[in-house]
Specification:
By secondary structure, the protein is α/β, with parallel strands linked by helices. It is built from four helices and ten strands; from the N terminus they run ββαβαβββαββββα. Bound molecules: inosinic acid and magnesium ion.
Amino acid sequence: MPARDLAQAKPLPVPKQWQKEIESLLITEDQIAARVAEMTAEIQRDFKGRELVVVSLLTGTVLFLADLIRHLELPLRLDFMGVSSYGGGTESGDLVFTKELRLDVAGRDVLLVDDILDTGKTMDRVLAKLFVLRPRRIKTCVLLDKPSRRVEKVQADYVGFTIPDKFVVGYGLDFAERYRNLPFVGVLHPKVYRQHARTLPRKKR
Ligand code: IMP
Ligand code: MG
């Protein structure tokens, strides 16, 4: 099944305790659960009982990953790669690898999981790193896709939801390491990152 396109979705009411920071609710807990179940079924069909190495990117995938693999009836091994972009704002900066892969993926079927595909720089760099290790095949899986922001020519094989160009948080996604625990995906109030920008040290040139 194709990704659910939320480009024209009507904003849903935000739970009271988050109204100050979250501008609108984009994807509810129930919508996420239903879509993740569909994605699990699709992955299961495609890999037909082969053993997977699931490579998940830290830290934004934690909730999505747990829900995705919980009902995956395939043998699998799980590993993490740490990728982080410098700078605490909403733009991706220079990428640094903070944790390297430990499992051997040579000749293996790999499922690469990330929270969101934005400019594509992260996915592009990580895929290049994985291909060198000669896996049998790599399929990519993301909860969210913001195609309008793409810089690199990269697409994901499994996409949960296609979303408009808004900075979103929740269900694992953060702003400056916060909001990962929200059970839904919501649009962050721009005033939150404007406020934050004023408290960041100036970039050295
Ligand atoms: P890309 O390298 O620009 O594709 O960005 C991918 C990474 O940027 C993701 O793994 C996220 O950590 C982060 N990111 C991009 N857009 C958002 C967003 O709207 N909210 C939270 N994190 C985001
Ligand atoms: Mg991330």
